[in-house]
Structure formats: structure tokens, C-alpha cells
Design a protein that fits this description.
Blueprint (H helix, E strand, L loop, with lengths): L4 H11 L2 H8 L6 H21 L8 H12 L10 H22 L9
């Protein structure tokens, strides 16, 4: 799946905090092994997205759960104090969530700012 520059920025923003992703995915108590797995996958996804702004259409398992959390757990829209930018980023995030929902046959939602 090809990403726009804005879509990539939304996902990359969350991938910068693998510890938060691990806590969300493992109910706040990830093991060291789970933390390391999430960190490694976030690093790989970040590298791939930075290199060519794509996500493998066949992604599944933990990498897919991480990508879903990157959207559903996003704080990207709220990362600015400018209300107009927040609204724009929410719309972009919602469009990304819809695109990913279709691509991965998952119900994905982007949070309001």
C-alpha cells in the first residue's frame, strides 16, 4: 500500500514511541521479549516507510497490530496547538484509517484531537 507524505507522517509519529505501542498491545504489562519485538518491528516499519512510503499489502500478525495501533493510538492531530491544523490532521487520519481498513480488512479508527 502506497502512502502519501502526510499518511506516512501520521504513522511514523506513533512508531517513534514503541514503548507506548507495546503497552497498548499487551495491556500495559509487556514482557522484555514483547518490548524488544515491538521495538524491532517499529524500527523495520520506520525504515521501510522512510525509504519508499509503502506498507506491504500482506502484512499480518504483530506488524499489522502495530500499524493499526499507529493509527488508532495516534496523537498526531493533537500534536499542534493550531485548531485548523488539528482539524486537517484529523481528516487526514480518518482517510488513512479508511484506506487501511479496506486494504487490511480491519475496522480501524483515527482518534479525534
Amino acid at each position: 500500500m502506497r502512502l502519501t507524505q502526510n499518511e506516512a507522517a501520521i504513522i511514523l509519529h506513533r512508531l517513534e514511541v514503541p514503548d507506548a505501542i507495546a503497552e497498548a498491545l499487551f495491556d500495559g504489562e509487556p514482557t522484555n521479549q514483547q518490548n524488544e519485538a515491538v521495538y524491532d518491528i517499529c524500527k523495520h516499519l520506520t525504515s521501510t516507510i522512510n525509504a519508499n512510503r509503502t506498507i506491504d499489502d500482506n502484512v499480518n500478525g504483530l506488524p499489522l497490530r502495530i500499524l493499526i495501533d499507529a493509527v488508532e493510538g495516534s496523537t498526531y492531530a493533537a500534536s499542534t496547538d493550531n485548531e485548523r491544523e488539528q482539524r486537517t490532521n484529523v481528516i487526514r487520519g480518518q482517510m488513512l484509517a479508511k484506506k487501511m481498513s479496506i486494504a487490511f480488512n480491519e475496522k480501524i479508527r483515527f482518534p479525534a484531537a
